[in-house]
Design brief:
Chain lengths: 207, 467
């Protein structure tokens, strides 16, 4: 994973609660064995006119003020629903590097932080203020600084945000999680050896 | 003074390889279930990094999401889907992972098959790249959905690094009235406690009304756990669980020591939870969802609710959007709403008992003109058992399609879809916008309600058909 420390740029408001992963990337885009190219499917049921890939001018990411957005500010429980990691890959492929919300679906958040998509949890009123600002006023830029877990909202105010500290360090380092666990290979082997005695039924089965 | 341990505390402790501090642990995964949707990129990542599968004997693979469910199907399905099925097959073969392929008598929806084949057992930590893995918590297992990065991590290490999740408990009391199923219970609970209730943690479901459930009913209930934001839903294993396990194709031998260990898997009387919920099912009626999340659910004889003016703006906005998407007006009765598609299937409601109750509703009746009605068994084994009982003949005579096992219309990824603007009654678990196809309007309900609605051509009260 590539290291992440600061995300700065245009922020787009998605003022809805409970945006599920079916909405983030509808299932027809999941028919692939690749991680790349999924940006086309991001919010496709909202972004395009029905049955086409023609941008719907009413959708926020299609509006000139939010061209090149790198940050999304959304309602609470963002990314609830299915475990599809495609939802995360679609953001990154589209160019979104961070999502700010009062809360996230737990599997989406884990997936995001494993891929370098930053999830910044803020208080509900802070998110509501940012959404209100972005929907009505310029500027539309924000800065999120992972090193000090502070962000500067579009109105210039500074707020702290929540992110799992261990994940934060992993993002700052660009850590390879699998390599870190493989360093513990001997402890895993020892556990498995003991477990064969303790719970043989886990191990005895073959099909 | 320390308090007692919860069922989940015990499962966490049992599978903890190493305490990594700050609430994090290295966790052993006892079963890793793979399917064609979330695994190809994980195997590719593994290959790229020149890593190998550490414990292939603990992994099982089955293609289910994308497979066609038409009679005589092979690998052919929607464009691009075949490559996913082939990738799963090739990856399983190369890594020496057991595969229940299309056409195998053990094939079916991953969560149905894992239980039915005895792959999932009480006390296990089970992970699968699918959020409805919580289904298997019905066995008293710690079962949860993961993303593709975690799939790759388990393939390489047979472990996950996790923060210990919060845990809550739901206590269910009362007695369900006739015609009120485990699905109605699940929907009623989510409508009451909310889609966010479990906050991404572990939800233990307990109480006298739960002890009275059959294993298949428990699977239905735990399946919907994720819709209340429970990444895992767990029911303590008991005599019902042990009898179910003993009847699997390859039960542990000898079984007695395993059962002795499983008996300890229950919450101590003084266990503490981060939150407690209660639900009483005495007055529960058959439930139907009216909106676009599973919590937007009412009794079949109730009216579509008004967007609450006094509620938080979040709930009000969600309700208004849902009404518009579903083409409904506040105050209209849900009963009698015309439908054009009925789907009986999915990992929520595709087991033998689900098909049996639907067949009871349908027997000797006809699907209403203009309604497309499908029955999609959850596994090849369920299909064979249903056919041995003659259920297929009952469905076909009534005008239902009788199909091969798979996820089918639950997810609109294969060729079984609901057309834009069409209204369906579905026994699946998600009524999100576009879930059954772009613009599809999904009403979640029990198999009996779905079957009755197929006959009526409109949302119907199953109790009128079950006498
Ligand atoms: S039946 Fe539906 S919910 Fe279940 S695994 Fe398949 S797609 Fe997921």
């Amino acid at each position: 994973m590539k290291a992440v420390s600061i995300v700065a740029g245009v922020a787009a408001p998605l003022n809805r609660a409970d945006i599920d992963t079916d909405a983030i990337i509808p299932q027809n885009w999941l028919i692939t064995t690749e991680r790349e190219g999924l940006g086309r499917g991001l919010f496709s049921n909202w972004r395009y006119l029905p049955g086409t890939e023609v941008p719907d001018p009413a959708f926020v990411l299609n509006q000139p003020a939010f061209a090149g957005a790198r940050i999304l500010v959304a309602g609470p429980n963002y990314g609830c629903g299915s475990s599809r990691e495609h939802a995360v890959w679609a953001h990154l492929d589209f160019g979104i590097e961070a999502v700010v919300a009062a809360s996230f679906g737990p599997i989406f958040r884990d997936n995001a932080l494993k891929n370098g998509l930053l999830t910044a949890e803020v208080e509900a009123d802070v998110a509501a203020d940012m959404l209100a600002h972005l929907q009505t006023r310029s500027p539309r830029t924000m800065t999120i600084d992972l090193a000090d877990t502070q962000l500067v909202g579009p109105d210039g105010r500074r707020h702290g945000f929540r992110i799992d500290p261990e994940r934060r360090n992993a993002l700052l380092e660009g850590r390879d999680d699998i390599a870190s666990t493989l360093d513990r290979s001997q402890v895993i082997s020892a556990f498995q050896r003991r477990d064969r005695q303790r719970r043989p039924w886990i191990w005895g089965q073959s099909s | 003074m320390s308090s007692g341990m919860s069922l989940f505390d015990k499962l966490w402790r049992q599978n903890l390889i190493e305490d990594l501090g700050e609430g994090r642990g290295l966790i052993h995964i006892d079963r890793h279930l793979l399917h064609e949707l979330s695994s190809p990129q994980a195997f590719a990542g593994l290959r790229q990094a020149e890593r190998v599968v550490r414990s292939p004997d603990l992994a099982f693979a089955v293609p289910d999401h994308i497979v066609d469910t038409g009679p005589g199907r092979g690998d052919r399905t929607v464009p691009g889907g075949e490559a996913m099925i082939r990738a799963l097959r090739a990856n399983a073969k190369a890594a020496d992972i057991a595969l229940f392929d299309v056409g195998d008598p053990r094939h079916g929806i991953v969560h149905v098959v894992a239980a039915e084949q005895g792959i999932a057992l009480p006390g296990m930590a089970i992970a699968c790249g699918d959020s409805h893995t919580c289904t298997l918590g019905a066995l008293g297992a710690w079962a949860f959905g993961i993303g593709t990065s975690d799939v790759e991590h388990i393939l390489a290490t047979q472990t996950l690094v996790m923060r210990k999740p919060a845990s809550s408990r739901l206590t269910v009391t009362g007695t369900r009235a006739p015609g009120v199923s485990a699905k109605d219970l699940a929907l009623g609970i989510i409508a009451q406690i909310g889609v966010n209730a479990a906050k991404g943690g572990v939800l233990e479901i307990a109480g006298p009304a739960i002890e009275a459930l059959t294993m298949e009913e428990r699977f239905t209930l735990c399946n919907m756990g994720i819709e209340a934001s429970a990444r895992s839903a767990i029911i303590a294993p008991d005599a019902t669980t042990f009898a179910y396990v003993a009847a699997r194709p390859n039960p542990p031998v000898p079984l007695a020591p395993a059962i002795a260990a499983w008996r300890a898997l229950r919450s101590d009387p003084d266990a503490r939870f981060d939150a407690e919920f209660a639900f009483d099912c005495d007055d529960l009626a058959p439930q139907v969802s009216w909106g676009t999340n599973p919590g937007q659910t009412i009794g079949v004889n109730q009216a579509v609710p008004d967007a609450p003016s006094d509620a938080a703006p979040r709930e009000r906005d969600a309700a208004l959007r849902a009404l518009a998407y579903m083409g409904l007006e506040a105050g209209q009765p849900i009963l009698g709403l015309p439908v054009s598609v009925v789907f009986i299937g999915s990992c929520t409601n595709s087991r033998l008992s689900d098909l049996q109750v639907a067949a009871r509703v349908v027997e000797g009746r006809k699907v209403a003109p203009g309604v497309r009605a499908l029955v999609v068994p959850g596994s090849a084994r369920v299909k064979a058992e249903a056919e041995a009982l003659g259920l297929d003949a009952i469905f076909v005579a009534a005008g239902f399609e009788w199909r091969e096992a798979g996820c089918s219309m639950c997810v609109g990824m294969n060729s079984d879809r609901v057309a834009p603007g069409e209204r369906s009654v579905s026994t699946s678990n998600r009524n999100f916008e576009g879930r059954q196809g772009p613009g599809a309007r999904t009403h979640l309900a029990s198999p009996a309600t779905a079957a009755a609605s197929a006959i009526a051509g409109a949302i119907a009260d199953p109790r009128a058909y079950l006498r």
